[in-house]
Amino acid sequence: MRDLIVRRFLAAFAPDAVSEKTEIVTTREMDRFLTRGSRTIDPGFKQVLQIESKEVELPAVEQGQEMPIKGCRLLEKQTEPPKRYTEGTLILGMKTAGKLLEDDLQAIMKEVEGLGTEATRAGIIDGLKRREYIKLVKKEIHPTPKGRILIDAVTGSILASPEMTAKWESRLEQIGKGEASAAQFIEQAKKLSEHLVVDAKQRIEQLAVDPTQVKSKSPRGATNRPVGPCPLCQSAVLDRGKFYGCSGYQKNNCGFTLPKTILGARLTQTEVKKVLAGQKTKPLEMKKNARQFKAMLYLERDQLKFEFTKGED
Question: What pLDDT does residue 141 have?
Fold first, then answer.
């Protein structure tokens, strides 16, 4: 202990330690080898404290100097994948997203603190768990088969680009300062939305999905029972829980739907079958602006129409 105290005292008056970082490039025919290390010029206080350098101490060499080859051996190693995210490290990753962007965009992402906010990042992760896109295995985040499909679907898409987030934040800042047009930004957002819808449909068609690997959940109350033919494409209209929808939505791009309730009146499967068969429903109790009335429903040119019962206007 006394020796350590003395050395510490003397080191305070010893000169600075001076070393230089060195990179040596060695060539042999077509092969190039890079050696990194340091070279001590003056050990200074390190000599007093007997501190050994943790880096490889390289000898003094000159450019063009020839060195004999003492031997060689081949090492076979495998790189290790990066550690999986935990909820904590994923939140940190969201906060620091955008490190690989250009300097100006990187500065924007740093200013807005990455993706999401302190209040929303944990909620985003909870949403992914609730929708079964990710699961926790010993605190590590693993994608589920459903999550892998989502990853394949958005990879390369503008939706997965922190650059888009940075540009939007930049434009919103300009709008706030009066340097850009809000109306123009909204119009651009509309066009982008249309592009995303078209792009999403194309990506879905290209995905190779094994339905046995992905559990599907039906909406609450959905029976998926056919209630009649679609007036637009003749595919079956199914009970989807909150509404009745055409089963040819993806195959035929058909968007025909009927509501479960309208103006307080509930459309049962029996009544929907009548409507799809070109008939009228029974008189249904409805209410609008505190006024109650009865009306029958029917389809006309694929649109739901009202026919008030006798005595109603």
Answer: 94
Q: Which residue has the tokens 């394949």?
A: 152
**Quick check: helix, strand or coil at residue 142?**
strand
Q: Which SS3 state, helix, strand or coil, does residue 264 take?
A: coil
Distance of CA 297 to the CA centre of its chain: 44
pLDDT at position 45 is 79
Q: What are the residue ranges in the chain where pLDDT is below 70?
A: 98-114, 205-223, 310-313
Quick: pLDDT tens for 183-199. 998 998 888 888 888 88
Specify whether the CB–CB gap between 260 and 223 falls below 8 A.
no
> Rounded to an integer, what distance in angstroms lies between the CA atom of residue 271 and that of residue 300?
16
Task: Give the CA radius of gyration of the chain.
Answer: 35
Q: How far apart are CA 229 and CA 169, in angstroms?
A: 47
Query: Which strand (E) or helix (H) includes residue 258?
Result: strand 257-259
> Would you give the end-to-end CA distance of the chain in angstroms?
104
Reported as type and span, the H/E element at residue 132 is none
Residues β-bridged to residue 143: 134
What six digits make up the tokens of 239? 């009970």
**pLDDT at residue 312, as a whole number:** 47
3-state secondary structure of 94: helix
